[in-house]
Structure formats: structure tokens, C-alpha cells
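Q: Could you fold this chain for me?
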Amino acid sequence: MTGFYRDGLCRAGAGDVGQHTVCIRVSARFLEFSRSRGNDLSTPRPEYDFPGLQDGDQWCLCVQRWEEALVAGCCAPGDS
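A: Sure. Below is the predicted structure, expressed as C-alpha cells.
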């Protein structure tokens, strides 16, 4: 389940310092970019009930990471 509060919504609150408010459809290119930045979103993490993301999945992303990916050419404006 995506979203800072794991409720499927890209919304932020007082505890969300990263502002996870950008909804994207992830691509393989974005997933590799994210992994290179230390945030592996494609590997399942059963201990957190996280199945891992695949190309085409939707995900709530923090504003700063979206901007980094956009500048790096790994997240097109139309992907958000």
C-alpha cells in the first residue's frame, strides 16, 4: 500500500517530513535510479509487508526525490 500513511493516498501530515505527495507510475528506469540513490523499491521486504514495485506500479513519492529523478531524466513530467 502506498502513501506515507499506507492508506493508498498521496497526502502529507505533520509526521511526513519528505512530503510524499507526488503520485507517479514507476518505470524500470526510475526504479534503477531510486536504487542508485539508496532506496531499493523493487526488492520485496516481507518484514514490512512490502511486495516490491514493478514497472507500471503507482507510488507516492516524496517531492525531493521526484525532483531529483526529473532532473536526472528518470521521471518524466507526464509520469506524475
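A (continued): The chain has a mean pLDDT of 89.
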